[in-house]
Inverse folding.
């Protein structure tokens, strides 16, 4: 099992939506200059951590997107943000951050294709400075402890095995 962990010292940026314009009567899709610059920065920082050969089989990606505490926040709020009492509930959203990181790691051959990522654990939080904390793991035998968690939930709740939607006290609404 291969595992690579690293820190990228840059404020996380999301994958931006493609831009569209008309040119001589034809629709054109392109990336904004800001998106191209963000990708170039992320690629340059990731390149020094890229494996010699892409990972094969199932891969787990875990990351934390750390955002700097706003200077405009009061000292009390800054402390609460750093202590984790105030969560980063503002833009960018986690889905677009995940897309940005996965696309960059695919370009740099951390894996052959991002469909190999069978498990993603991610979070946003505040910190002293912006950074990505990343761990990518090649999963042996195609199994992951997530499967065990699902099996345990099904054992606890027999109605799940019968295809009945059921509310788990900690997991929320689950469907079989």
């Amino acid at each position: 099992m291969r595992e690579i962990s690293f820190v990228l010292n840059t404020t996380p940026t999301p994958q931006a939506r493609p831009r569209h314009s008309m040119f001589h009567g034809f629709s054109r899709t392109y990336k904004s200059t800001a998106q191209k610059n963000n990708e170039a920065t992320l690629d340059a920082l990731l390149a020094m951590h890229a494996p010699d050969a892409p990972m094969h089989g199932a891969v787990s990606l875990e990351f934390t997107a750390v955002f700097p505490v706003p200077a405009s926040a009061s000292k009390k709020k800054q402390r609460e943000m750093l202590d984790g009492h105030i969560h980063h509930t503002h833009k960018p959203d986690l889905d677009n951050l995940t897309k940005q990181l996965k696309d960059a790691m695919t370009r740099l051959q951390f894996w052959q294709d991002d469909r190999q990522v069978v498990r993603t654990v991610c979070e946003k939080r505040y910190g002293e400075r912006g950074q990505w904390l990343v761990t990518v793991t090649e999963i042996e035998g195609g199994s992951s402890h997530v499967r065990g968690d699902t099996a345990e939930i099904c054992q606890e709740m027999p109605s799940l095995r019968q295809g009945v939607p059921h509310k788990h006290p900690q997991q929320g609404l689950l469907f079989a």
Q: What stands out?
A: Residues 33-47 form the longest helix (15 residues). The CA atoms of residues 14 and 93 lie 8 Å apart. The two ends are 31 Å apart (CA to CA). The domain at 3-139 is CATH 3.30.1330.70 (60s Ribosomal Protein L30; Chain: A;).
